[in-house]
Design brief:
With 184 residues, this protein is an alpha/beta fold. It has a single domain, classed as Class I glutamine amidotransferase (GATase) domain (Rossmann fold). The chain is globular, with a radius of gyration of 15 Å.
Length: 184
């Protein structure tokens, strides 16, 4: 069973966060939600999620196959400025694990210096990232083990691509069909 670390902070984008957690868990992926704030963390639209753990209490990243950052403007800024988040992203990439971010949070990948050559993000945030090639032609960009996506409307597609990367084509198709997704 694959294991994923989802990192949030105050101001996280709820649609993205819940889509990621829900779809990964439907695929039988073990998801740990970690926060850099309080265990009860409030999102951008005042929806509170109870994290499983504080990121500072997760000392061993070896068991995780992927780390994912949901978006949200405030969340992105919090994650991008956190040294603990940067260290976590760098350790995961150095261990050849998947690193993924959606919406504004590819900026946090940029700040941690873990973006590869090509990425996508929420329109306008590409102006803050000058080290890679931005594309607005794809909703999800997979560049080796770095996966990025555009925003709330692409959250299900992003989460399903995470399933495919971790669990393979058959599990991806089963979850996609069960969700009645037909447009990608």
């Amino acid at each position: 069973m694959s294991k994923v670390l989802v990192i949030i902070s105050s101001g996280f984008e709820e649609i993205e966060t819940v889509s990621i957690i829900d779809i990964l868990r439907r695929a039988k992926v073990d998801v740990t939600v970690a926060t850099i704030n309080d265990i009860l963390t409030q999102g951008a639209n005042q929806i509170t999620i109870k994290a499983d753990e504080k990121l500072e209490n997760i000392s061993d990243l070896n068991g995780f196959d992927m780390v994912v950052l949901p978006g949200g403007g405030e969340n992105c800024q919090n994650l991008a400025s956190s040294q603990l988040v940067k260290d976590t992203l760098q350790k995961m990439k150095a261990s050849d694990k998947y690193v993924a971010a959606i919406c504004a949070s590819p900026y946090a990948l940029h700040e941690a210096k873990v973006l590869n050559n090509t990425y996508t993000c929420y329109p306008s945030f590409e102006k803050k990232i000058d080290s890679a090639v931005y594309t607005d032609k794809q909703d999800v960009v997979i560049d080796e083990k770095v996966i990025t996506s555009r925003g709330p409307a692409t959250a299900m597609q992003f989460a399903l691509e995470l399933v495919k990367a971790l669990e393979g084509e058959e599990r991806f198709k089963n979850i996609k069909n069960g969700l009645l997704v037909s447009h990608f």
